[in-house]
Amino acid sequence: MTRRGAVLVVIIALHVFIGWALATGLARRAIEVLAPPIQTTIVEETKKEETPPPPPPPQFERPPVELPPPDVTINMPVETDSTAIRVVNTPVVKAPPVAVATRPATGVGFAKGFPNSEDYYPDASRRLEEQGIVTVHVCVGPDGKITEDPTVAKSSGSARLDGGAMKLAKAGSGKYIAGTEDGKPVTKCINYNVKFQLR
């Protein structure tokens, strides 16, 4: 018999033995011997008794304090017939205040030597024959000088002419006549036209 045949016979014999062991219950008895039965123990769970929370502290109410009303005694004067001299307070009528004559307010004016628009006519506008009227807004202080940069209230349609009018308004600072209120010079703002016209 060859080695292969011997191995085959051993395998077949092993299968036959396992089948016989299963059929006769030998395998079950062997497992019971090798593995002891599992024992279970029932453990009862002990419940802890929870202690109730302490009662809240008692709240004491402060009784309202009643104050007796104060005793007020009013002494009323008693009129008696007497020959004593009495002082009588009579209201003094004041004379109406004398109206002070107020001087009428005046607006901003222009002093002698105020710049001429011909001196600030842009050369480019002369060559292009540009003409127009620029409305300038200026604020003049009590000293006759402008208090802030002048602005264009209404444009002529030409930026060059508008720029010439702004230069004229600045050059006139100090040559304005300040407006007045009650005879005193104050700061006032005006609008005036600067006309650029070819001659």
Question: What would you say this structure looks like, in words?
Answer:
- The protein has 199 residues and is α+β, with helices and mostly antiparallel strands.
- Among the domains are: 3-34, no CATH class; 109-196, Fusion Protein Consisting Of Minor Coat Protein, Glycine Rich Linker, Tola, And A His Tag, Chain: A, Domain 2, CATH 3.30.1150.
- Helix content is 25%, strand content 15%.
- The chain contains 4 helices and 7 strands.
- The strands form 3 sheets. A 3-stranded antiparallel sheet has the order 3-2-7, with helices on one face. Strands 1-4 form a two-stranded antiparallel sheet. Strands 5-6 form a two-stranded antiparallel sheet.
- A hairpin with a 2-residue loop joins strand 5 (180-181) and strand 6.
- The model has no long low-confidence stretch (mean pLDDT 79).
